[in-house]
Amino acid sequence: MQTTPRYLLLALAISSCAPSAPPPAASGPAGTSLTAAQRASIGRMIWKNESGGTIDGLTAWNAGEEFPSLGIGHFIWYPAGFNGRFFETWPAFVRFATEQGATVPAVGRQPDCPWPTRDAFFRDFQGAELTGLRNWLAAQVTLQTDFIIARSQGALPKVLAAAPAGDRSRVDANYRKVASTPNGTYALIDYVNFKGDGTNSSERYNGQGWGLLQVLQEMREVPAGQPAAAEFAAAAKRRLDLRISNSPTARGESRWTSGWHNRCDTYARAL
User: Fold this and answer.
1) Distances from the Cα of 168 to the Cαs of 122, 181, 190, in angstroms?
2) What is the Cα–Cα distance from 266 to 255, expressed in whole angstroms?
3) Interval 26-43: pLDDT, tens
4) Is the N end or the C end of the chain the one with fewer CB atoms within 10 Å?
């Protein structure tokens, strides 16, 4: 009898937090049919998307943000006392890694980011703690990829339950259309890591979200396969453009337009 992988058990645990509204007919979560080579390719692409595939990019703190972003997926980690609108993914990754038997470096196991500001972070950038954390992350790309896939799989039932009743069938159908190709599967996995599942009410500007749910709602009617992957990429760009137009001026999000569009363009290309 085949044993359920532990990262799938985590996906089920994540999905158990979803509202109780029943989803329509079940869809296969993205990533369940990927080969080991495809999974490795997706991990490399996510690392390239987030930081150009560089080692230094594994511990980053973007200008204008209040927190660092760590790992191939740039997992968010909040300093003590800061409560941001975005889901804090670094602590979730640490829990996942520990469940898988990995030993996260001590600095990464702290409940809050120990660097209170971006300046403090970069003063210590070449120090032992951040250097060691980068080296550990560079050696744990498969573990990080599995976490990102598990998070994407846990997002599906949440998205379906959160969708308005009249939209659920179309959202489910769009998900399955996109997931019918390897690059579409990559798109679904990457986008949840990139911009969330769209069910967090705090991840809104002027009441408008930009996560997976909103992109699936935004998609136009197209056939399954590569047309669906291409439309998912186009819909993602439309929602991200809306996010930018609604974002607070002080965040300066328009500077990310080109990079965000380039990332979405990878979803339309064969894996």
Assistant:
1) 45, 21, 22
2) 19
3) 345 665 677 888 889 899
4) N
